[in-house]
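Its record is set out here:
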Amino acid sequence: MSETINNLESAFGGESMANRKYLYFAEVVQKLGYKDLAKLFKETAAQETEHAFAHFELLHPELKIDGAESLSDAEKQAIAARCLELAIAGETYEYTTMYPEFTVQAKKERDDKATADFEAQIQESAAHADTFRRAAHRFGLLEAVEHHHADRYTEALTVLKGGEATTKQATQKWICKQCSMIYDPILGDPDSGIAPGTPFAAIPDDWYCPICGATKKLFAPHIEEIAA
């Protein structure tokens, strides 16, 4: 992962945290009767949100929408599915990895309040992930999310078995999981010495993303269309 991507993620996290912190401060001073100060904190929180959004758009340019009216139904569904995929992945990480690890540490330090908080968040994150999955079902978008994962596993299995790329794989576009740069076999990557018409499987293992420097292993099949 490039340092710039790391910095963008850190900046996004910092601005996001500042937003929630200032909103909390607004509630505190509001209770104390300082209405003007509460207003100041809320206004600043809104500005921090805009900063965070700007950083997030650089991290996920595939979600940036300049004109929804120009998008096809399939393109709209693909963007919505991507949002759900990111949300599910984030909540799943929280309840399977992040909070369980935090809980273990809190118990070691005998911090009962933090332990109880982290354990409650495990349940909450699991519920959120389930809510997003049900939303994907409800809007008919889960198929795209699961199809994306299935393609990744299928491709990995093919490579592990030493198999060659199929015709579909030869024209399959791949997306960088770090910066969302899309590799199109039809176009190749001439600037990096990859000729047009080169399937992803045929790219040398030492090739890296021309935008963020991610290795080939950090690319996944890109789903462009979703059946209505």
Notes: The two ends are 35 Å apart (CA to CA).
